[in-house]
Amino acid sequence: MSVKAKMLLVLALGAIGLMGIAQAASATHPRPKGATPLRASVVPAYKTCAVPNRTHGAPLAFPSCNPPAQASDFLTVGTPDANGVAAANSVGFIRLDAKVGVPGPPDDSDILVRASISDVRCKPATSASVCSNANAADGPDYSGELQGNAMIRVTDHYNGPSLTEAATVQDIPLPVNATCAITADTGTGGLCSINTSANAVALGAVKDGERAQVEVAQIRIDDGGADGQVSTADNMIFARQGIFIP
User: Fold this and answer.
1) Where are the domains of the chain?
2) Quick check: 12 pLDDT over 50?
3) Which of 147, 179, 217, 230 is packed most tightly, with the most Cβ within 10 A?
4) What is the CA radius of gyration of the chain?
5) CA–CA separation, 105 and 127 (whole Å)
6) What number of CA atoms fall less than 13 Å from residue 41's CA on the CB side?
7) pTM assigned to the model
């Protein structure tokens, strides 16, 4: 599978690597023995049910909305019972791995970031400039940008005047921009993927001999809006961290 995009997440985020700042020597807050890797699947995002017109079956007998509405007006994935005869080929994930380096310069501890989402297709509202590769069924490949994001909460020992005090940082978002590219397969949409690290995104974010606990909220992937550019204001949620039950 070729590398065709920088992405999140999702992913979220490469910039999530900023969470790695910490002073390790004398931690005074509860922490686990280990917590790596973090791997999360992503699924197409749907709008909140605001005006229910149905009720879900028991035991989850809660109000529901028919029909379901995708959160994005610009991107989708192939699904034969929903948008023509295109097969369901989309698979997406985000994975973060802690890498422990050798003490001493240069800092080679890091957080490795890998992410991928396949079969990304344009809806009619998306500009033809990023939707030029038609498929045999359903929308063309998407070759615009995505933005991964997640709120994180860092607890570490890299605070105060001496940078040795334990503290919990206020929740912060960490967006990461990426691009997608077309595929030669007319039965599959565009492919977005990334293989990078925290220090590649923000040099010095993760240092040797330091540790941090980082709480990661739900990962989301935004589309690039009508023009495929995340720098404009019309972006919508395309995918979220989740699980699919076949």
Assistant:
1) 14-45+76-241
2) no
3) 147
4) 20
5) 48
6) 8
7) 0.84
Task: Render pLDDT for 65-118 as a digit per residue (tens, 0 to 9).
Answer: 999 999 999 999 999 988 778 899 999 999 989 888 887 777 788 888 888 999
Give CA 131 to chain center in angstroms: 22
Average pLDDT over residues 131-142: 94
Query: Before 44, cis peptide (omega within 30)?
Result: no
Query: Kindly report the CA angle at 5 between 113 and 151, in degrees rounded to 5?
Result: 50
Q: CB-based contacts of 39: which residues, under 8 Å, 6+ apart?
A: 93, 94, 95, 96
State the burial class of residue 245 (Cβ atoms within 10 Å of its Cβ: 0-12, 13-18, 19+). Answer: exposed
Is the bond leading into 67 cis (omega within 30 degrees of zero)? yes
Bridge-based pairing of strands 172-173 and 54-55 is unpaired
CB burial string 182-212: b at 16+ within 10 A, e below = bbeeeebbbbbbbebbbbebbeebbbbebbb
For residues 214 and 205, the answer to whether their CB atoms sit within 8 Å is: no
Residue 234 CB neighbour total at 10 angstroms: 13
Report the distance separating Cα 71 and Cα 193, nearest Å.
21
Q: Hey, what are 104's tokens? A: 């001493």
Cross-strand bridge partners of residue 44: 239
**Which residue type, as a one-letter code, is found at position 194?**
I
Structure tokens at 24: 């390790």
d(CA 180, CA 190): 6
207 token code pair? 């240092």
H-state helical runs in 156-207:
198-201
| Among 115, 130, 234, residue whose Cα is nearest residue 182 | 130
